[in-house]
Amino acid sequence: EDGQLSEATRAAILELPSEAIAALLESLPVNSRLQVWALVSDDERGDVLFEMHDDARRHLIGEMEEADLRTMAARLSPQELVELNELIPEKLYSRRLKLMSIKEQTAVNTAMRFDDDQVGRNIDSDFISISENLTAQQVMRLLRQWQIPSNTDLLCLVSEDGLYAGSVQLTDLFNAHPQQQINELKLEEDPAVGAEMHMSDLADHSYQNHYAMTPVVDDAGHLLGRITSQDILGWVQDEAESQLLQQAGLSEDEDLFAPVKRSAKRRAVWLGINLCTALLASWTIGLFEATLEQVVALAILMPIVASMGGIAGSQTLTLAIRGLALGHLSSSNANIIFRKEILVGLLNGIIWALVIGTMAGLWFAKPAIGFVIGAAILVNLIFAAVSGVIIPLILDKLKIDPALSGAVILTTVTDVVGFFAFLGLGSLFLV
Amino acid sequence: EDGQLSEATRAAILELPSEAIAALLESLPVNSRLQVWALVSDDERGDVLFEMHDDARRHLIGEMEEADLRTMAARLSPQELVELNELIPEKLYSRRLKLMSIKEQTAVNTAMRFDDDQVGRNIDSDFISISENLTAQQVMRLLRQWQIPSNTDLLCLVSEDGLYAGSVQLTDLFNAHPQQQINELKLEEDPAVGAEMHMSDLADHSYQNHYAMTPVVDDAGHLLGRITSQDILGWVQDEAESQLLQQAGLSEDEDLFAPVKRSAKRRAVWLGINLCTALLASWTIGLFEATLEQVVALAILMPIVASMGGIAGSQTLTLAIRGLALGHLSSSNANIIFRKEILVGLLNGIIWALVIGTMAGLWFAKPAIGFVIGAAILVNLIFAAVSGVIIPLILDKLKIDPALSGAVILTTVTDVVGFFAFLGLGSLFLV
């Protein structure tokens, strides 16, 4: 039949690793997506969903028969169960949890105590912990019997009362004397972090230390698990992606093939917010209705003033946001940067005021128009510089991420100031 | 004296790790920056510069006395020499290179053969390679004598003729029989990558495989070095930062405290590009000068049409750019996404046409104005959806990164189309 997959395609798909199947599913329209999903084995489905974005997996889970869903849920790993907990029915969640080993149950319950972007939520419970009272030789013997998980370059030591007691670099075992106590090999600078830590802080931390894994402990000093560099890398990549999407008012989970109605509804919210800011700009223009009637050149040139202000402002804003993120900008040095940005705005304001003023004066054969637009550009570029520094600092103080709402607020300011300066000067000098 | 650092501050600074000193230097205005720099020891200076952005380190190097610069250059590590090669005088570069061991010289010369964003440029030559003809016991004995670098979870095997022969997971040594040949322990799926590979491809690759390091080979099969997960993480973080800056027409190396003149000059370029697009919009408005003279309400409402189009378009654009980056969007499924986005544009177009049309009609007490702006919004939102899919696909075909120039092109289109539709309909129905 036409809509069916060929034998060769089926075979090729079954060979793919789960990350590739996940990417394939997300790049397929709804119908073909369900056909490919039907090929994925019960065992692999949890793996594949784990790698997908929220919308697309919600869609697949929504289309599954109850029996299939039950089979899949019963095979989820602890990490998969945590990741998918909001998408599968409560009943299947608890049933799966009950059938896990005590160790796995603890892992799930521990992870669920933390937020998505806390270290505790993202830990991997597949790691090696060892009593701190053993000798190097005893540890080597144990390691020979165990399956050592990938990305292991540290052994975590645990004291008799079950608390985390430090970490040993795996390679240090090679140089140790067989009878040496393992806890004598402990790293001086302990690499462990608290489970409450934010993932983005850990990302910076991990770049500075030098192990493939980071042990994670709770407030009471219990060892909860570890995070590998790969986990952190995945998180950083997801974050960068999600930040780009959020700047356009989109959710990071947005599915390319989401139903039209749902997509339209979500995006409508951002359009509505934007409408409010655009209305503010229109209202400003409306104040000068009488002037515009007399000097139509003002209407023609208006967008230039607003747009130059918006661009200059967003340059300052972007630098300030990066400065805040890297810790280079704070209230202690804001003054100096403030002064510098105003000077940059002044310099570019003068240059572009001359260029645009001359062009506009020639275009409308009226030097006064050139003067008015030049002055407005100068005012708006200085104002843009001021706002570009102040807005992110204020948002940061209010604990609002300036990377998300900074640009909308800034362009509202530069639009309103630009229109007001331009049309205001126009009413004074051109009417 | 006033401008001097106190003893306590000096002592505290000297205790900091080099990453923290780098961040501190970048957050200081020029004068204090030089004072802190004077405290950094000759040995640590290379380390610190390695962690800084280009502009700030260019500034520090520019301010150094020749003798200090010579001392610092003579102590650079191979990785530091590669990173700083464009910033120090040719003569000091070659002098440092000559004084290195053969192994280090090879590392530098190898790295210099590749571009900044290729794997080959970023490799770490501090790793363990071992002849593939040894037994497990012989390897263990060697490892006991060597200093094993951090982030080592693989041993790279080399054949008799010096070619890369596969990798062994370090932990597999624990379970091996002492007399077993090391090359029998080789990983089936070889983790090595080619030195020509782009770092961003490696970042995706590394997230999928499971080692703390990735061996790097050249075309001829020689083992050049390795890349650790930490190196990749650092690169991904830098990339995300640089992408945000480039979207605002800024260089990733921009220094918060760069001289006003240099900052102004750099940003002027982006303002100039923006001016061209703004002029195009003004020119479009100019076509309807006569209409604007008669119906000033059009001038007041213009920004709303352009801005709604810009927002809707950038939402589609952002999704398309992400889709391209993740491999979810290609010419094979572009058609389906195209149709979906047009429908979303249509739906939101209808909703916002009604809302804005009603508001505008009431505002100016003239239903025809409501009709004209409603129709213009509808047209612009559909056009925005079309452009949001087509522009990134075309740029991608032309090998231009759509994340950089896509937004500028898109808003130019939505401005021009929006003004043309709105003022054109206005001339037809309102004059």
Write structural notes for this entry.
2 copies of one chain form a homodimer. With 431 residues, chain A is mainly α. Chain A has 3 domains: 7-112, MgtE N-terminal domain-like (MgtE N-terminal fold); 129-233, Roll (CBS-domain); 260-429, SLC41 divalent cation transporters, integral membrane domain (Tetracycline Repressor, domain 2, Orthogonal Bundle). Chain A is 65% helix and 6% strand. Chain A is built from 19 helices and 6 strands. Chain A has helices at residues 7-15, 18-26, 30-39, 42-51, 54-63, 66-73, 78-83, 90-98, 102-112, 136-145, 172-175, 199-208, 229-247, 260-286, 289-294, 296-326, 334-363, 367-397, 402-429, and strands at 129-131, 154-158, 164-169, 193-194, 213-217, 223-228. In chain A, the strands form 2 sheets. A 3-stranded mixed β-sheet of chain A has the order 1-2-3, with no helix packed on it. In chain A, helix 18 (367-397) runs antiparallel to helix 19. The longest helix of chain A has 31 residues, at 296-326. The first copy, chain A, is elongated. The N and C termini of chain A lie far apart (74 Å). Chains A and B meet through helix 2, helix 10, helix 12, helix 13 and helix 14 of A and helix 2, helix 10, helix 12, helix 13 and helix 14 of B.
Summarize the helices and strands and which ones pair or pack.
The structure is a homodimer of 431-residue chains.
Chain A (H helix, E strand, L loop, with lengths): L6 H9 L2 H9 L3 H10 L2 H10 L2 H10 L2 H8 L4 H6 L6 H9 L3 H11 L16 E3 L4 H10 L8 E5 L5 E6 L2 H4 L17 E2 L4 H10 L4 E5 L5 E6 H19 L12 H27 L2 H6 L1 H31 L7 H30 L3 H31 L4 H28 L2
Helix pairs in contact in A: 2-4, 4-6, 12-13, 14-19, 16-18, 16-19, 17-18, 18-19
